[in-house]
């Protein structure tokens, strides 16, 4: 459980100016959230299979086919610097 001092420290770190009323409300909400996480943590999931989706639907997938022609050369004519099919950019890190 978080204390009043914990929430004051969080408010200071995030540069939030909170009134005593707002501080108390945030303390209540944060403690409510952390207790919810604690209850979820205690759920036995050892024999559960992971779900891709909670809904019992199948994904409609489109065929993976090329639908456009390669226009890299055309696009690179607009670039300020290109070499061997790659865009050249200024060095950011040494």
TrEMBL record:
EC nos: 6.3.5.-
Top-rank taxon: Bacteria
This protein's UniProt keywords: ATP-binding, Ligase, Nucleotide-binding, Protein biosynthesis
Catalytic activity reported: L-aspartyl-tRNA(Asn) + L-glutamine + ATP + H2O = L-asparaginyl-tRNA(Asn) + L-glutamate + ADP + phosphate + 2 H(+); L-glutamyl-tRNA(Gln) + L-glutamine + ATP + H2O = L-glutaminyl-tRNA(Gln) + L-glutamate + ADP + phosphate + H(+)
Signal peptide positions (record): none
InterPro entries: Asp/Glu-ADT_sf_sub_c, GatC
Pfam families registered for this protein in UniProt: GatC
SUPFAM superfamilies for the chain: Glu-tRNAGln amidotransferase C subunit (SSF141000)
Function: Allows the formation of correctly charged Asn-tRNA(Asn) or Gln-tRNA(Gln) through the transamidation of misacylated Asp-tRNA(Asn) or Glu-tRNA(Gln) in organisms which lack either or both of asparaginyl-tRNA or glutaminyl-tRNA synthetases. The reaction takes place in the presence of glutamine and ATP through an activated phospho-Asp-tRNA(Asn) or phospho-Glu-tRNA(Gln).
Assembly behavior: Heterotrimer of A, B and C subunits.
Family: Belongs to the GatC family.
Name of the featured protein: Aspartyl/glutamyl-tRNA(Asn/Gln) amidotransferase subunit C
Species in which this protein is naturally found: Thiopseudomonas acetoxidans
Lineage summary: Bacteria, Pseudomonadati, Pseudomonadota, Gammaproteobacteria, Pseudomonadales
């Amino acid at each position: 459980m978080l204390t009043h001092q914990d929430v004051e420290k969080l408010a200071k770190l995030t540069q939030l100016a909170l009134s005593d009323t707002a501080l108390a409300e945030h303390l209540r909400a944060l403690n409510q959230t952390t207790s919810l996480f604690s209850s979820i943590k205690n759920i036995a999931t050892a024999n559960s299979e992971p779900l891709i989706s909670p809904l019992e639907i199948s994904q409609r997938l489109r065929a993976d086919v090329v639908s456009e022609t390669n226009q890299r050369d055309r696009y690179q004519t607009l670039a300020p610097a290109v070499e061997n099919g790659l865009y050249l950019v200024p060095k950011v890190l040494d």
